[in-house]
Amino acid sequence: MIPLSDSEATRRLTPANTTLIAANLIAFALEVRLGARAGRTLAQFALIPAQLSGARSFEREMRSLATLVTSTFLHADILHVGGNMLYLFIFGPAVEERLGFQRFLGFYLAAGITAGLATVAMAPASQVAVIGASGAIAGVLGAYLVLFPRARITTILPFFVFFQLVRVPAIFYLMLWFAIQLYAGLTSGVEGPLVGGVAWWAHVGGFLFGVAIGPLLARRPTRRRR
Question: What is the pTM of this model?
Answer without folding.
Answer: 0.90
